[in-house]
Amino acid sequence: KEILEKYHDRLRLQWEGVIGHMHVPSQAEWEQLLTNCSAFLFYGMERFMSHILLNRLAAMNMPKCHLMILLDLTRSKQSYQRITNSDIHKSCLHIGIERPTETAMLLSLTGVRSIIANQWYTTLQENAERLEILSESLLSIGRTTGQTVHILQK
């Protein structure tokens, strides 16, 4: 919320979505947000792909989405239990498609032009630091995504 407030007025951007613990987005909400965005930020627990239906995402067309930032792969006791219960009903192939590289490939096939994503599990604090760097670099300073990723790698 702090980052949205910090950059909202300066850039006059239209921010739309679900913040915090407002509610769990429905599949229709996910689809509406994904297909109507020029940039998409996911900052949440576990794998991004575990939150949406794979078959629906595969059929989506997102050519307007220039940048997708996935700050996922964090874990709490509750999120681990949720994902474990959800994974019981999935095939190994389905779970494999939810991994970071496969997620990026699938999103690319749906039309997303650039994807910044975690490659392995991390902490909420580390993702918060990444989000601050991404926001400052992309929104305030105006660096390119390539320059910003290079900074994150350091």
UniProtKB/TrEMBL annotation:
Question: Can you cite a GO biological process for this protein?
Answer: cilium movement involved in cell motility
InterPro entries under this entry? CFAP46
Q: Write the protein's name.
A: CFA46 protein
